[in-house]
Design goal:
With 544 residues, this protein is of the alpha+beta class. It has helices at residues 12-15, 36-46, 76-81, 86-89, 94-98, 104-107, 121-124, 157-172, 232-238, 277-280, 295-313, 318-330, 345-354, 360-368, 392-396, 411-414, 449-461, 530-538, and strands at residues 25-33, 68-74, 139-145, 175-177, 193-196, 199-201, 207-209, 244-245, 251-252, 284-293, 419-426, 438-446, 494-497, 508-511, 517-527. Strands 1, 2, 3, 4 and 5 form a five-stranded antiparallel beta sheet that branches. A four-stranded antiparallel beta sheet has the order 11-12-10-15. The protein has a two-stranded antiparallel sheet with strand order 6-7.
């Protein structure tokens, strides 16, 4: 099915993950609109700065042309503050209108009774209210920049573009930069949320990015591919394992309408959207989530648990046992190789021999070619002996695990895919205490926040029924109960690693998993097309 996208009308951060395109640094800016005409002026002045998919197209070769990318999105209250017609606003989905903080308990963000006190000030002061609150978040501006390899810092253009956007806000006469990208009580609230991949200093004096996140896993693997995103050989390569199964054992791109409004989705329907259609088409929705990572707690848990796992599993080498335990919890080895293709340390080592890190392009192709499945019949791994059914990766992308026994997947899985954007933030040292700021800002892109993002977050991450694990949550990003008598989340969080019955060894069950990831803020945003941005700037959105 050929789909030709108007790249000049689509914002660039939808089709590509900037971090994989050479933009290793970033910055988040949030704004409040005091007067509609000021907001429209601000949007109009930003229009020439917005990065489209034409300016930064999806590609596999490195070397971005732009020093800095700029993209923009709006909350529902932001669109209301811009005086978008009521008939257009009421066509927006309920979850977008509600906002994330009102739906936080459903998303599993209430990891303790005082969860709201852990959120950054910029979100708790927002109040998600129109009316007189001057702190309500209305506009999100994301900046991504290249890095100076000799300093490890963002190129100077990032500061220049930031200043330019601030000047546009001040000159508008009614748009305010919101501060408070920090925990409550900080003496000087942060004006921006700074972002960065983990950067390492090389012996040759240069700084290079790493693909690792704070827990030590290679990240950014396995994003879905949809029709129109890539072309030719790029599509044929990228779609392997990242698209949908066509019923004949082949991989095809997912329907464009799963990620962009105005196109047929996997149900062969064009979802209802806000009117006029030109306002919605080529736009999408985004969940902004700031997720704090308790690195010290994760490290301590591994140190305490690896000896128990080593004794049960029979793995003599402690380093091998630790790597295996981490891989079983995530579903991949720490460098990204999936357990379903490398079941033990020996197989993993063999992959690294066959595909050395000194040949990064060949290695990336080899990883991309791991178009593996999770067959549910008796021919392969129905009990999760290779890759536990409740491992993180197996939860967030079930592939063909929930499909019929022929291993060709299902509509259930195809309609729950999400695009992951964003970058890491905070302290990148190995010994960072959990009181420090470190984690990831995730920008989750999908056409339906309810059907895609919220379903995965609620049903697959924070519930275990589809993984055959009762109420057990994801061992990495799930909501982990401490089992206290007054806990709202039941008994102590546990994780089960099955073993081959033929080995004579029992399964490994670890109980009392601490909270590794905590939500520190977030909101739902509408990411308009360039056409819609021009409508907003001119104040000519006509729902008739």
């Amino acid at each position: 099915m050929a789909v030709h996208l108007d790249l000049a009308d689509i914002q660039g951060n939808i089709l590509v993950a900037y971090g994989r395109q050479g933009f290793y640094k970033g910055r988040i800016m949030l704004f409040h609109i005091d007067r509609a005409e000021s907001g429209r002026k601000f949007v109009t002045e930003l229009l020439p700065m917005i990065t489209t998919a034409q300016a930064c197209p999806p590609r596999t070769s490195p070397g971005p042309k732009l020093p800095v990318t700029v993209n923009i999105a709006f909350t529902w209250y932001g669109l209301l503050a811009l005086e978008i017609p009521t008939r257009t606003l009421r066509g927006m989905p309920d979850e977008f209108i509600d906002g994330m903080i009102k739906r936080a308990p459903m998303l599993g963000d209430h990891f303790d009774k005082n969860w709201e006190k852990h959120w950054d000030e910029v979100w708790t002061k927002s109040g998600q209210d129109f009316g007189p609150n001057p702190n309500t978040v209305h506009i999100l501006v994301t900046l991504n920049s290249q890095m100076d390899s000799y300093t490890g810092k963002a190129v100077p253009a990032l500061a220049s573009v930031t200043s330019q956007i601030n000047n546009h806000a001040r000159n508008s006469g009614g748009v305010t930069l919101l501060t408070g990208h920090n925990p409550p009580g900080q003496r000087v609230p942060r004006e921006y949320q700074d972002l960065s991949l983990i950067i390492k200093h090389q012996e040759n004096g240069k700084y290079v990015p790493t693909p690792k996140e704070h827990f030590g896993f290679t990240d950014g693997i396995g994003d879905p591919v949809f029709y129109g995103q890539y072309s030719g050989e790029d599509e044929r390569t990228k779609v392997q394992g990242n698209g949908a199964l066509d019923g004949k054992g082949n991989w095809r791109p997912l329907a464009t309408g799963e990620f962009l409004l105005g196109y047929p989705d996997e149900a062969q329907e064009i979802a209802g959207a806000a009117m006029p259609l030109d306002f919605s088409r080529n736009g999408t929705f985004m969940a902004y989530r700031k997720l704090h990572q308790n690195v010290a707690a994760f490290t301590a848990f591994m140190d305490e648990t690896v000896e128990q796992f080593r004794a049960v599993s029979g793995i003599e080498n402690v380093d091998h046992a630790r790597e295996t335990l981490m891989a079983k919890m995530v579903g991949r080895w720490s460098d990204g190789v999936p357990l379903s293709r490398a079941k033990d340390v020996a197989a993993w080592n063999q992959f690294n021999i066959d595909h050395p890190t000194s040949e990064p392009k060949a290695r990336e192709v080899a990883l991309a070619d791991f178009h593996f499945r999770y067959p549910t019949d008796a021919r392969d791994d129905p009990d999760g002996i290779r890759c536990p059914l409740t491992a993180h990766m197996r939860r967030v992308n079930t592939r063909d695990m929930l499909g019929p026994s022929d291993g060709d997947g299902s509509v259930l899985t195809n309609r729950r895919r999400i695009l992951r954007r964003g970058l890491l933030y905070g302290n990148t040292s190995d010994d960072a205490p959990d009181t420090d700021e470190q984690g990831v800002v995730m920008l989750i892109v999908c056409a339906s926040l309810f059907r895609q993002f919220e379903f995965v977050q609620q049903q697959w991450i924070n519930y275990g029924l589809d993984a055959g694990a009762g109420s057990d949550t994801c061992p990495i990003v799930g909501n982990h109960s401490d089992g206290a008598p007054d806990s709202e989340h039941g008994p102590k969080a546990k994780f089960v690693i099955p073993t081959d019955p033929a080995s004579g060894r029992p399964p490994f069950i670890v109980e009392g998993i601490p909270q590794f990831v905590e939500t520190r803020g977030g909101e739902y945003f509408f990411v308009p097309s360039m056409t819609a941005l021009r409508m907003i700037g001119m104040g000519v959105v006509d729902p008739t």
